[in-house]
From TrEMBL:
Organism lineage: Bacteria, Bacillati, Actinomycetota, Actinomycetes, Kitasatosporales
Protein name (database record): Helix-turn-helix transcriptional regulator
Any Pfam family hit: GerE
Chain ranges of the HTH luxR-type domain: 141-198
Domain of life: Bacteria
Length: 228
């Protein structure tokens, strides 16, 4: 395990991504130098890599550089949960960004097989909760509003229309109109199916009790801390 400051990022990525032969998995919480350097290095690697990119950015234009990478098979998903900058190459070596409030914090290059496997599992868990970019982009902007998310949470949790309208502080008629629009957007035939479909597509997390949620999510994941 090697720790360096952010000035070593381009060189570290050149060594890791430049030498990739099969797969590259990358998690990105936002746009920035980390993403730009990964894209630049990937574009110079002529191998027909499989690239899995997971990010929180929702804007369509943010995905285009990834989808246009030459000679690469790119699979992209969006996850609105907390992500950390992470790169895993060929399942053998990884690079993580230390948890910090600074835009570009300390880098950790991980080459221990067991530690890399842990990072792969964390990535896989976040990946499984994400939704494909094609599914995300086909939804209208209305499906990404706080109002829609609130209604979907109420549907998922099995609230009656009357209870849900009261919780949303809207009239029953207005609530039912919103539900009808959401069901049409999700191609759902029932309220339960709409909630389930939203979870399936990653728009919502599965419903959990507070106690189960705390067990499943004890706190934000900080890769560098878990490897210390």
């Amino acid at each position: 395990m090697i720790r360096k400051n952010s000035t070593y990022l381009p060189g570290a990525l050149e060594q890791l991504v430049g030498g990739a032969r099969h797969t590259v998995a990358v998690a990105l919480p936002e746009t920035g130098n980390f993403e730009k350097n990964v894209l630049r290095t990937l574009s110079r690697n002529a191998s027909p890599l499989v690239v899995r990119v997971l990010r929180g950015e929702q804007a369509e234009q943010a995905w285009q550089p990834w989808l246009q990478l030459p000679h690469k098979r790119v699979d992209a998903r969006m996850n609105e949960g907390e992500l950390r900058r992470l790169l895993v190459v060929d399942g053998a070596v990884a690079l993580v960004q230390a948890p910090t409030d600074a835009p570009d914090g300390q880098l950790t290059v991980v080459n221990d097989a067991a530690a890399v496997r842990v990072l792969e599992l964390h990535f896989a868990a976040a990946w499984s909760r994400g939704r494909g970019i094609a599914d995300h982009l086909r939804f209208s902007p209305r499906m990404r509003t706080d109002m829609t998310r609130g209604i979907l949470e109420l549907l998922r949790d099995g609230n009656t229309d009357e209870t849900a309208a009261r919780k949303m502080n809207v009239s029953l008629r207005t609530y039912r109109r919103h539900v009808a629009e959401i069901m049409r957007e999700l191609d759902a035939t029932s309220r339960f199916e709409a909630g389930a479909r939203a979870v399936e597509l990653g728009i919502l997390a599965p419903g959990l009790t507070d106690r189960a949620h705390k067990r499943a999510h004890p706190g934000p994941w900080h890769p560098a801390e878990s490897l210390s």
